[in-house]
Design brief:
4 domains; about 55% helix; alpha/beta; 3-stranded mixed sheet; 5-stranded parallel sheet; about 450 residues; GMP Synthetase, Chain A, domain 3; single chain
Length: about 450
């Protein structure tokens, strides 16, 4: 049976004569093992066919060959590219080794802030709707900001939902090295089969593809094959697609056809959260003034933050000394430009909150029951607990309260009300950010 003639015959009832005439430009169609491969004379014809008649072709082919048929439209260039023995046969369903996924890089271990919230939400959405939203997902940002963590976390989440999912995580460098290896062996088909049989393909540091023409060609065709059958692709780079020099325009076009998101440098509050989390993981106690020193001094990336914590831990254990501000300055002086920082005092917190609410600082520490003053006092107590290492008793004395119960109640009330009162949450976050930058 002439596959394409049968499809055109079925479509003749739905299409006009001029469109049917254009369909005769198809060179060849071949059906094998659930796949319909259609060869077209050039990329323009291919794009026209995909953009205007793909759904009708899939419906017609499904009626002829059965449901769940997969259609792949190839230009002449692509047809030549795939002309190798058995290249159109169904790929073996072989799961891949996932030992290159870091078990620590999960969503649970990710500190989320304004710097990475959009990228995090996009990755969660992709993990839950693989191949259906944001495909491809392109994440960019400077080195050491957690892009690799996001990629690994997405893979872990997909596996949690479907342990049998076929996933490949690789870097652009590894992808190139693997391609060279398969080319030298004369088994490029095995390379293509490996990458065309995945549910999720993650490629890190795609900026290293710049100027690598053969690697770009392979990736372009692999990308097209995966996209056509609804498989997910996630890519990362240190720069947005438009700034990738030495990259084929058609590949750039594929990169920006889904969702492009940026991971930015973390703000002070996020860095403090990261320090607390990493210190807990390392089982070390970091005083607040040391955390503030690191957060204010390290502005480049999270990796440097982790490295500094590791150095503090190692020196503390080897020398048998606790981690203090003086110890941290001395230990990190040769790798960081240490800034002098002033400890955030309870009086400073009271003053800033009083200024914000346009009330007197004496009202903050007094017993006024005016609603505005009560809210300001509770916020000041909350910030005192969150931003300093002071005990509840020390905070209660600073606010002239008899015991710490009042402080504890205020903290719990603000914490609870922020979940339902957006205005309150914004106020607290604004004051927190301002105090952290003083």
């Amino acid at each position: 049976m002439d596959v394409w003639s049968s499809i055109v015959s079925s479509l003749s009832k739905k299409l006009d004569k001029s469109t049917l005439k254009l369909l005769k430009g198809v060179d060849k169609a071949e059906y094998k093992n659930g796949y319909l491969y259609i060869s077209t004379p050039d990329p323009i014809y291919k794009d026209w066919l995909e953009g205007n008649l793909l759904e009708e072709i899939i419906d017609t082919a499904s009626n002829l060959f059965g449901k769940n048929i997969k259609v792949e439209i190839l230009s002449e260039e692509e047809t030549e590219f795939f002309k190798e023995e058995n290249s159109l046969q169904e790929v073996e369903k072989t799961p891949y080794s996932l030992t290159n996924l870091n078990p620590k890089y999960t969503f649970k271990n990710l500190v989320i802030g304004n710097c990475n919230k959009i990228a995090y939400m996009a990755c969660r959405s992709v993990a839950e709707n693989l191949g259906k939203v944001y495909n491809p997902l392109f994440i960019y940002g400077h080195t050491g900001l957690g892009k690799t963590h996001l990629l690994h976390a997405t893979a872990h989440e997909v596996l949690a939902n479907n342990p049998k999912a076929n996933i490949i995580y690789t870097t652009a460098d590894t992808f190139m090295s693997e391609l060279v290896y398969y080319l030298q062996k004369g088994s490029i088909l095995s390379f293509r089969k490996r990458y065309r049989n995945v549910d999720l393909l993650l490629i890190d540091d795609v900026q290293f593809l710049q100027g690598k023409e053969r690697t770009q060609i392979e990736l372009y065709h692999i990308f097209n094959a995966l996209y056509l059958i609804g498989k997910q692709v996630i890519l990362s780079s240190d720069t947005p697609p438009k700034n990738l020099k030495g990259l084929q325009e058609r590949l750039k076009g594929r990169f920006i056809s889904g969702l492009v998101v940026e991971v930015k440098k973390p703000d002070l509050d996020t860095k403090l959260s990261i320090i607390r989390k990493k210190a807990k993981e390392m089982n070390i106690k970091i005083p607040h003034d040391v955390s503030l020193l690191l957060a204010k001094t390290i502005t480049s990336n999270i990796r440097e933050l982790e490295g500094s914590l590791g150095r503090l831990k190692a020196y503390s254990e080897m020398l048998g000394r606790p981690i203090t501000l003086e110890f941290a300055r001395d230990t990190l002086k040769d790798i960081l430009e240490i800034q002098e920082i002033e400890e955030l005092s309870l009086e400073k917190i009271q003053k800033e909150v009083a200024n914000y609410f346009a009330i007197n600082i004496n009202e903050i520490v007094g017993n006024s029951r005016k609603k505005k003053v009560v809210v300001a006092r509770q916020i000041a107590m909350y910030l005192a607990r969150v931003l300093t290492d002071k005990s509840l008793n020390e905070i209660s004395k600073a606010f002239k309260k008899k015991d710490h119960t009042t402080v504890l109640n205020a903290i719990e009330k603000i914490d609870k009300n922020m979940e339902k009162d957006r205005k309150l949450k914004l106020t607290v976050e604004f004051l927190k950010d301002k105090l952290l930058t003083l």
